[in-house]
Amino acid sequence: MILVTGGAGFIGSNFILDWLSQSNESVINLDKLTYAGNLQNLVTIADDKRHIFVKGDIGDSGQVARLMTEYQPRAIINFAAESHVDRSILGPEAFIQTNIVGTFRLLETAHAYWKTLNQADKHDFRFLHVSTDEVYGSLTEREPAFTEIHRYQPSSPYSASKASSDHLVNAYHRTFGLPTLITNCSNNYGPYQFPEKLIPLMITNALADKPLPIYGDGKQVRDWLYVSDHCSALRRVLEAGKTGETYNIGGWNEKPNIEIVHTVCALLKEMTGGPANGDYRDLITYVKDRPGHDTRYAIDARKIEHELDWKPRETFETGICKTVQWYLDNQDWVASVQTGAYRDWIESNYIQQRQ
C-alpha cells in the first residue's frame, strides 16, 4: 500500500487513476479538499476498494501518524501543496503553512514511522516529494536548461516555499537517513486541471466568450509536460530512483505562452466550429504583467532518461489535442468547479488588471 497526499488535486488525482489502472496495490489518499481538491476527479474509482480516501491535512501529525500505523504504507508520495504563483503573491501565508510547515510535519511523522520498521521494510521504504522547476528561478533565452544541480533562485513566494520544502526533504535524508526522492517537473497540463492555470483558463473562457487574459507580452517561455507522462515518470522514480537523488521531469516542449493560447484557439475553432462571429483569438486581452514574472523555464530531462530509461510519450501536439477534447467532453466538471469563490478570484486577479 502507498500513501498519496494531495490526491484529489490535478496531478495527484491523475496519478491515483493512473496507478490503479497499472497496479493492484491500494492507495490511501489524504487530501484537505481546499478549492483545487475535487473528489469528482476520482468519481470513476468511487467504488474501488483499492482507493481509501481520508480528508485531512499533512500538517496534522496525529492524523498522519494514525494512518501510517493503521495502513503501514511502503511509500509516501507527497503532492500536497499550494501551487499557484498568483495566489502566492496575493496571500503567501497559506503557501508557507502548507508547503513548508506541512512538509516539515509530514517528514517528521514519516521519519518517526520509518524508525519503527524492520530492516527490510526500512530499506524498501520511500518518501517521494513532488516539486517544481520554478525553484530554479528564471532563464534567459540562450541559457542551458535546468539540470538537477542548477542553483536554486526562486522568484515568488510559491517557488520559495517549494524550494524550502525541497531543502527539508534533502536534509532529512542526509541527517536522518530517511530514504527520500525529489522530482522537479515542468508545467503540467491535461484533464482535471483547475481553470486558473493557463490552458484550462483559455479553454473555459473562450467557450464562454470571455476575455483570454495574457500577462505582459505573452512571450514568457515554459516547458510543457502532459500529466500522464508526469505520472509515468513518478512511477518509474518510485520504482528505480536512487534515494537521496533529484530527478527533473520535462516534456521537451518549450513554447511561449502566447503560442499556447493561439494553439488552443485554433483547436477550439476546429473542434467546435465556433465562435459564430470572428475568431477565438479576438478574445485575447493583454493584462499587466505579474510581479517577478519569470522569463523562461526549461527542463533538461537527460538524467531520468539515461538513469531510469524514461521519456515522455506525448508530444505537445498530441497532448494539447487530448486536453482540449477532454474539456469539451467534460463541461459538467468545469461548471462544478467554477464556484462563486473561483469567479471572485478571476475578477480580482485578471479583469481588474486589464490594460
Describe the secondary-structure layout.
Elements: E1 2-5, H1 10-22, E2 27-31, E3 51-55, H2 61-71, E4 75-78, H3 85-90, H4 93-115, H5 119-124, E5 126-132, H6 157-176, E6 180-185, E7 187-189, H7 198-207, E8 212-215, E9 221-226, H8 227-240, E10 246-249, E11 254-256, H9 257-272, E12 284-287, H10 302-308, H11 316-329, H12 331-337, H13 340-349
Parallel strand pairs: 1-2, 1-4, 2-3, 4-5, 5-6, 6-10, 7-9, 8-12
Antiparallel strand pairs: 9-11
Describe this structure in words.
The chain is an alpha/beta fold and 355 residues long. It has a domain of 236 residues: 3-Layer(aba) Sandwich (Rossmann fold). The protein has 13 helices and 12 strands. The strands form 3 sheets. The chain has a 7-stranded parallel β-sheet with strand order 3-2-1-4-5-6-10, sandwiched between helices. A 3-stranded mixed β-sheet has the order 7-9-11. Helix 6 links the parallel strand 5 and strand 6. Helix 1 packs across helix 8, helix 4 runs parallel beside helix 6 and helix 9 packs across helix 11. The longest helix is centred in the N-terminal third of the chain and has 23 residues. The protein starts with a strand and ends in a 6-residue tail after the last helix.
